[in-house]
Design goal:
Strand content: 15-25%
Distance between the termini: 64 Å
Radius of gyration: 33 Å
Mean pLDDT: 88
Structural class: alpha/beta
Length: 803
RNA sequence: GCUGGUGUGGCGGAAUAGGUAGACGCAAGGGACUUAAAAUCCCUCGGGGGCAACUCCGUGCCGGUUCAAGUCCGGCCACCAGCACCA
């Protein structure tokens, strides 16, 4: 018998053996069935691994190890999303090249991950900062550029006053920079943009063909924000131009009593001569332009605005002349930058009309309260009134009829809109992929030739962005000044770099063929491995990273580069691990747990088991060191089963059903995010072994095979020490049969009038009448009066209803 | 405000499809072993009442459907996360 379980010896021993035997190398034999399990690759921060990291990594390690035992060729890779601001900021502060900082951090992360016994195929490790990798990130950018999906535009962008970079709208949280928390202001800059909006529809449609956790799919849909409505043209009194608006409620057109334009609307300048209160208008615009989108939103409670005196429009269905206002609650970035206001049936318009005393006309009847007192927005029950040819129709019918009318009279059309905005793709930073574009005064933006890639990130003296918002690369004149590839004249390189999202938008493709220097990955490899079978990541990435990578993938599909429309067949997400006090772990709260300490004191297997047992996988869970101890105790009890191990090459009769039930439960729980109940089932199983006082070799072998994905080191050691054949990582996953899951006798609950009164033991396929008779006898004292009903649910419950 | 999620013992959490609420673990209490402690093993462990067999109450709150509701329906409340005037 083996000595007391010592993880200090057992864990490094097996990690070395797995390395030496290349136990988890992915096969390139493409005739085998494949399984591609993916976790989000980490940003190698200076803090090292956090206890949050092992949660998803262990979960999919379990899936990967199980699938290997089931005969799949598994790809479970790991890499580094290593470009990014914290590294650059650290480099600036400490005068160390970000390349060195990255190298050190990666080394540390890798050692930490290795100590946890993950079955990653390290031969396929990738790093986004490696020129052999960003070669292809740049290549994809050129593809996007050549397809017209990358463009440069002067636009007000979100400018972080501290990071000195432009941010995508998606990166701004509550008006402050998502990364550093500093104030974000508006600044006009020439920016590279990617036309993700052109893919809005495809990105919505694609969600129907994949298996995403429902709330993830919902968030993606809401973020894209599709709405269907109509564009309607309003004639401007005495002008040639029409003012076009977008509306989702064209049924209420008869109730449009005024219009509102965004303060940035181009018609305001165009018709300035007609506007009699120009000074007032200018003052309002000035004030609005100072506000960021966020301030505009914050000040929203109280509506502000100015009427454009001298400029009016005509309601195309009533023929009435209506005033035009400007207000900052109308955004230039959505729809057409102008709206028709129907105060009776839109909350914001109602507030605005009340404040400025504008007419409110009811066109949908159905409210108990007059619309002058309360806005009525219900679309399900109302009926159209005061609306000419729409009178008497439901809202839905009225919409259809109105669109017909608009189109036949050429004053409008059906129209779909999306909330999604284009992706701001430039960063005024050093530590990112250089954008492979040259600007020539004569030829415009000229892309580099594919053969010139990768465009290497040059060495610079200082990584500090310049105060005027230029990237540090702008100071490198010998790098910046080049000849135009088209005309040979003087030209300049683009000095902005790509955002961190770029490298992570396609990394899962590179894992399939990571060393290929001719293509991003071979067609063969892509065809075999795609799509990713299961991708797990944090909830915080369900809108940004997930949407961006789906966009790039779909674009590459359209270009014939990848074989599938969608990159990920299945997407799940894990909950956060909180401190012992239930708060988010942070240095300032002093509740950070270092995984290295847990590995040292309790072992990697204990950490892995605990993180899976801690609670429902998709929910946040608070750390508990006592809980860690409980898991260590469980593994020790598994170890000590050796003391009661007996011979036997098949399950003993009294445990056979339990064995089959456990295999079934563990097998399905591992695939459905229920790691906690899978472990509970194994705990219950060993409790049965101890209760019985013995476990035979067949039973013990099955337990080891079920447990090894969770706790691979201890189980591998027990497998070897007790003379089981071969390596456990190569063993076959245990089989079960549904038939054998059922015990020969079952316990049936007996209820009288719905209350539990007794339980009886009965054969599993007993006759209904016999069981009911047995139940009546068991609960005889509780049955009073006449029996009016007897319910029997086979194998579960008998309910006697009496009165 | 809108959207999504959650609400079950002292704690983390179980409970396919409505069918014995509290699996599994932690903590706590009692006992065994020990000179003692740790470790380990055994017992108890939702609340009230009873000497006891037993009994009543109990899954955020109010109501409903059902032989039967943590689970379904209607109406609330609380907390967490995301979004922010999207026409």
């Amino acid at each position: 018998m083996k000595e007391y379980y010592n993880h200090h010896e057992v864990e490094p021993k097996w990690q070395k053996i797995w390395d030496d035997e290349k136990a988890f190398a992915t096969s390139t034999d493409y005739s085998k069935p494949k399984y591609y399990a993916l976790v989000e690759f980490p940003y190698p921060s200076g803090q090292g691994l956090h206890v949050g990291h092992p949660r998803p990594y262990t979960a999919l390690d379990i899936v990967a190890r199980k699938r290997r035992m089931q005969g799949y060729n598994v790809l479970y890779p790991m890499g580094w999303d290593a470009f990014g601001l914290p590294t650059e900021n650290y480099a600036i502060k400490n005068h160390i090249h970000p390349k060195i900082v990255t190298k050190n951090n990666v080394e540390r992360f890798k050692n930490q991950l290795h100590s946890l016994g993950y079955s990653f195929d390290w031969d396929r490790e990738i790093n986004t900062t490696d020129p052999g990798y960003y070669h292809w990130t740049q290549w994809i950018f050129l593809k996007l550029f050549n397809a017209g999906l990358a463009y440069k535009t002067e636009m007000p962008i979100n400018w972080c006053t501290s990071c000195k970079v432009g941010l995508a709208n998606e990166e701004v949280v509550n008006g402050v920079c998502e990364r550093c928390g500093s104030e974000v202001v508006r600044k006009v800059k020439s920016q590279w943009m990617l036309k993700i909006t052109e893919y809005a529809e495809k990105l919505i449609e694609g969600l129907d063909s994949v298996d995403y956790v429902e709330r993830i799919a919902t968030q993606q849909r809401n973020w894209i924000g599709k709405s269907t409505g109509a564009e309607v043209q309003f004639a401007l009194t005495g002008k040639e131009d029409k003012l076009t608006v977008y509306t989702t409620r064209c049924d209420t057109l008869f109730g449009a009593t005024y219009m509102v334009m965004s303060p940035e609307h181009p018609y305001i300048d165009k018709y300035k001569d007609s506007i009699s209160n120009w000074d007032e208008v200018c003052a309002y615009r000035e004030e609005a332009s100072k506000k960021s989108d966020f301030e505009r939103a914050e000040l929203a409670k109280d509506k502000t605005g100015v009427e454009l005196k001298g400029l009016t429009a005509t309601n195309p269905v009533t023929g009435k002349e209506i005033p035009i206002w400007i207000s900052d609650y109308v955004l230039m970035s959505y729809g057409t930058g102008a709206i028709m206001a129907v105060p009776a049936h839109d909350e914001r318009d109602w507030d605005f009309a009340k404040k400025f005393n504008l007419p409110i006309i009811e066109v949908v009847a159905g409210s108990d309260v007059p619309v002058t007192e309360k806005v009525y927005t219900d679309v399900a029950t109302g009926t159209l009134v005061n609306s000419g040819f729409l009178n008497g129709l439901s809202v839905a019918d009225a919409k259809a009829k109105m669109i017909e009318y608009l189109e036949s009279n050429k004053i409008g059309c059906a129209k779909t809109n999306y909330k999604l905005r284009d992706w701001v793709f430039s960063r005024q930073r050093y530590w990112g992929e250089p954008i492979p574009i040259i600007h020539c005064d004569k030829c415009g933006y000229v892309p580099l030739k594919e053969e010139e890639l990768p465009l290497m990130l040059p060495e610079v003296e200082s990584y500090m962005p310049t105060d005027n918002g230029e990237s540090p690369l702008a100071a490198m004149t010998e790098w910046v000044n080049v000849k135009c590839p088209k005309c040979g004249g003087d030209a300049k390189r683009e000095t902005d770099t790509m955002p961190q999202w770029a490298g992570s938008s396609w990394y899962f493709l590179r894992y399939t063929d990571p060393k290929n220097d001719k293509e991003l990955a071979s067609k063969e490899a892509l065809k075999y491995w795609l799509p990713v079978d299961w991708y797990n990541g944090g909830m915080e990435h369900t809108t940004l990273h997930l949407l961006y990578s789906r966009f790039w993938h779909r674009f590459l599909y359209d270009q014939g580069v990848v074989p599938t429309k969608e990159p990920y067949a299945k997407r799940t997400s894990h909950g956060m691990i909180l401190g012992e006090n239930g708060e988010k772990m942070s240095k300032s709260r002093g509740n950070v747990v270092n995984p290295d300490d847990i590995v040292r004191d309790y072992g990697a297997d204990t950490l892995r088991t605990y993180e899976m047992f801690i609670g429902a996988f998709d929910q946040a869970a608070a750390w508990s060191e006592d809980g860690v101890k409980g898991c260590r105790r469980f593994l020790e009890r598994v170890w000590k089963l050796q003391e009661i191990l007996t011979d036997g090459d098949k399950y003993s009769d009294d445990l056979e059903a339990k064995m089959h039930q456990t295999i079934k439960k563990v097998s399905s729980d591992f695939e459905s995010l229920k790691y906690n109940t899978a472990i509970a089932a194994m705990m219950a199983l060993i409790n049965d072994f101890y209760k019985k006082g013995s476990v035979n070799r067949a039973e013990f072998g099955t337990l080891l095979r079920l447990l090894t994905p969770v706790a691979p080191h201890i189980t591998e050691e027990l497998w070897e020490a007790n003379g089981y054949e071969g390596r456990l990582y190569n063993a076959a996953w245990p089989e079960y049969s549904d038939e054998k899951c059922v015990e020969s006798t079952v316990t049936i609950a007996v209820q009288v009038n719905g209350k539990l009164r007794a339980t009886i033991q009965a054969p599993k396929d007993g006759e209904k009448d016999a069981i009911i008779a047995q139940a009546k006898e068991a609960a005889a004292e509780k049955i009073t009066g006449n029996i009016i009903k007897e319910i029997y649910v086979p194998g579960k419950i008998v309910n006697i209803v009496c009165k």
